[in-house]
Amino acid sequence: MSVQPILEVENVSQRFGNFVALNKVSVAFEPGRLTAIIGPNGAGKSTFFNVLSGAFPPSSGRVRFQGKDITGLAQHEFARIGIAKSFQITNVFKQLSAHENVRVAAQMRETRFQLLRPRASLRALIDKADALLERVGLAHLRDKTAADLAHGQQRALEIAMALASDPVLLLMDEPTAGMSPEETGVMMGLIRQLAAERTLVLVEHKMKLVMGLCERLIVLHHGEFLAEGSPEQIRNNVEVRRVYLGE
Ligand code: ADP
Ligand code: MG
């Protein structure tokens, strides 16, 4: 790799009791790129995602972000250093409106930074939330209660909330899970736009979906690194074809 990686995973293993969910996985991510982690069900994708996003520290191995060791860093520190994530399961405040959800997320960021600079005015937070809703295509649903939004819209809302921390790196676990084909199309368009602005790492089960979207794919299988490369290389990789056909 010619440029300094933004994120490096070195020899990461994750054990649950005797079960090895990840076995010595090493991967480096280049800044500004859209990379997808793919693999059949049970491959260890979500476990890998949880390690990257700090949900739990790995059993062994290191994770470095912008050259700094962040292994075991507390969950709430991740947003502060510039890493945000959206989960496989939708995670919004159901009783709040779309706008209130994003405002809360923006407010949380300000609270984190308030020792460093004056608190943002309420007006600034309102405007930021509106800009983010616009960004993810939800401006027209601003005052709708999150519970009343369609599934795809809730996922988009969650992304707006993740963006409220102005992340350098955005991690997404199966952003199109449970979506209709139409919702999937909208989400892929949004991901494409976001990828133009920042580093994005996507975990995705559906290989076809990411082929047209990502510059680089990493394949996990049974908790092990299986392959990496361009969509073209991955499409033609005999082992990758075998594990996907064998599902
Ligand atoms: P994927 O997201 O690729 O489908 P996961 O990372 O969710 O795979 O799971 C990988 C393997 O680890 C699976 O066999 C799963 O049952 C196991 N696993 C995941 N989380 C836990 C856990 N908290 N405790 C025990 N086993 C787990
Ligand atoms: Mg998963």
What are the distinct ligands in this entry? adenosine-5'-diphosphate, magnesium ion
The structure class reads alpha/beta
Largest sheet, described in full?
6 strands, mixed
Give the class-level CATH name of the largest domain: Alpha Beta
What is the tally of helical segments?
9
Helix-strand topology string = EEEHEEHEHHHEHEHEEHH
Q: What spatial order of strands do you see in the largest sheet?
A: 6-7-8-3-9-10
Rounded radius of gyration (Å): 18 Å
Percent of residues in β-strands: 15-25%
| Count of DSSP strands | 10
Uncertain stretches: none
- Supply the CATH superfamily name of the largest domain: P-loop containing nucleotide triphosphate hydrolases
Cα shape: globular
Q: Portion of residues in helices?
A: 25-40%
CA-CA gap between termini = 32 Å
InterPro entries: AAA+_ATPase (IPR003593), ABC_AA/LPS_Transport (IPR051120), ABC_transporter-like_ATP-bd (IPR003439), ABC_transporter-like_CS (IPR017871), BCA_ABC_TP_C (IPR032823), P-loop_NTPase (IPR027417)
Organism: Roseateles toxinivorans
GO molecular function, one term: ATP binding
Keywords: ATP-binding, Cell membrane, Membrane, Nucleotide-binding, Transport
